[in-house]
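Example S7 (structure tokens).
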């Protein structure tokens, strides 16, 4: 059995050849971000992180149904809140094509995000009452 010098040099453990030994990283952009862009990136990252932590904390399939069961004895209401969370993604199916074809997408995000965040406010008000 003969092997070439290239195979022996690039072979890893157990004599396996590396899949892509000459894989190069893309060139780094030299365009500097403006302060407003940098701020927007940080704020968007914070918004996403806080929203995802809150979404995980309220537990769509555990905590919220438990909360509703404390408010009412109706098993229909407990099931309805779980179904409402699952159906909450349905409008995106019908709107996605229109938003994709629209020239400006950011106004859609700015206009619809408050409605998405409103569930946390409603929950807080229900807890306060």
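Recovered sequence:
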């Amino acid at each position: 059995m003969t092997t070439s010098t290239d195979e022996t040099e690039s072979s890893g453990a157990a004599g396996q050849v590396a899949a892509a030994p000459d894989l190069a990283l893309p060139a780094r952009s030299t365009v500097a971000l403006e302060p407003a862009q940098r701020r927007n990136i940080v704020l968007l990252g914070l918004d996403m992180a806080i929203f995802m932590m809150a979404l995980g904390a309220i537990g769509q399939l555990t905590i919220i149904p438990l909360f509703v069961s404390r408010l009412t004895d109706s098993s229909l209401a407990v099931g309805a809140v779980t179904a409402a969370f699952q159906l909450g993604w349905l409008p995106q199916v019908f709107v996605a094509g229109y938003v994709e074809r629209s020239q400006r997408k950011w106004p859609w995000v700015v206009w619809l995000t408050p409605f998405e965040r409103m569930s946390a406010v409603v929950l807080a008000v229900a807890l306060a009452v």
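Notes on this example. The longest helix spans residues 35-58.
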